[in-house]
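Suppose a classmate hands you a notebook page containing two proteins, each written out with its sequence and a corresponding row of structure tokens. How would you begin to make sense of it? This section walks through that situation. The first entry is reproduced here exactly as it would appear on such a page.
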Amino acid sequence: MCYADPAHKRRRPIVIRSVWSHNLESEFHLIRSSVDFFPFVSMDTEFPGVVIRTTANTDDGVDFKHRQPERHYLVLKANVDRLNLIQIGLTLSDRDGNLPDLGTENLYIWEFNFRDFDVARDAHAHDSVELLRRQGIDFERNRECGVESTRFAELMMSSGLVCNDSVAWVTFHSAYDFGYLVKMLTQRILPGELGEFLDLVRVFFGSNVYDVKHLVRYCESLYGGLDRVSQALNVDRVIGKSHQAGSDSLLTLHAFQKITQDYFGLNNPIEKYAGVLYGLDVSDN
């Protein structure tokens, strides 16, 4: 995989395309026409935090190390089943990291705003929601103008983003991200077993899924969250703020490109680390 320096691409302005109910179909049309040429999809989500830290099924004291991924999944499921997404950010790129220009002088990424979450009524982690509010998310506007998740799921299924072996997904610490997407695409609560969930992730997103948080485990001196890892890699945030899904999806792509260049190659191909979601790696058992 070639690496394109993010600094080079800053010569052309990058614009976040904000997606609401009124422009959802037209934006998916643009994505559908772009994905064959830009099959690397970097994704981030924003959701209302974690409200359940343990469940009855995760506190039985049995072989904790062996069952850790299953325990993580049960807590994830308990939260995802109860909560709703706030934003999804998508950055499409080609193998060299180039972004679509849609025939203009700008380069584009996408940020979908959802109406499903009602901050006045729905369960949420207060600190998480206040952080998102400080970072610019307008929960009232989301409720009034945001995308309905059912319509998003319908359009995503026909977009070429999912069930497409030519597409590679790039993420950071993405178990919850994929949890919310699987819930949205199936329009039902998550499966009761981790194995069933991972099967659905493979059905929708294929085997070319790269979780940068998982890759960091094999990169000497790298650790921490997306911002810390990016700083260590000397990768700057090009547009937007942290905890905005569009901005974070682009930063995730750039961190992935730099890690690919600096830590992986012919003798250690990055492809062998695909298909693992950090924290849900059953191969570690």
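The notebook's second entry, a different protein, reads as follows.
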Amino acid sequence: MSQVPIHDTPILGMATRPRVSKAIEYGNIANFWVEYPSGLMDLTRSQHLTTDGVEPSSVSSTQLDIPVTGDQVIYYLAVCLNDELMVDSFFLHPELRVHKTGLACVDPLLKVVGPLRKQGVKILWVNWGLTDQELKTLPPAVVRGFMKGGFGGFGTEMPGNFGRLLMRDARNSELYGPLQEEYLKGEKEGTDVWIHKNRMSGIWGHQTALDLYLKENGITTLLFGGVNADQCVSGTFIDAYFQGYDCVMVEDITATTSPAGGLENVLYNAANSQGFVTNTSSIINASG
């Protein structure tokens, strides 16, 4: 029997997503993308595909055109965009763990939030922040995942002055160092919002705080970054993809402590099936 498939399928051998040969519209009448042979992917939902397949001109002063992997450019309205970041001190602080690749994300993250704010993009800091009531309702798999050898776990007191593990308003649930300062600056300016979550995914079900905020504010396109890439970040990314949001992973502000292949797998699937992958340099350049 031949070891080579005799039928071509949409994802067979696709290391990178190729450009389309002609313009095509995806989705439905109310929620749609349009992709063009030039590599342009229009996520604005402002103009359906025309019969002549001509690319639309700029639709707004808040439009951003951002290059993504696969030799493509996505564009969307900044007012329908948010930057979602997951960087609790518990996962990044040097006194609690060694996370060199995570710490390397701090500088590019600090550099990109300013240009995004100027474009009207909301910066959402999505982090663990459990309440005592939520401790009583967490499923066993989630509880066990944050224990070691039957010890520790959510709500237990941590060494030093870091407070109770991943509880709301505890120091270990704050953002790491300079990122907490950056959030406070954005909160004062009205550009940044803090979102508590109670699972690895911030949008694991309808009516989570994150889902409510996005729907109430008409946000459809999400930029993702944080740690760990193949746990909290990918959990939220995939759930958002399932719920119909436009998902863009920002590669140089995303990291993990997992063995080799963890980050690569997340980026591969983000770029080739679940959405797009870009980097902070492309975003900054697009923001002017």
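A careful reader of the second entry would note: The two ends are 57 Å apart (CA to CA).
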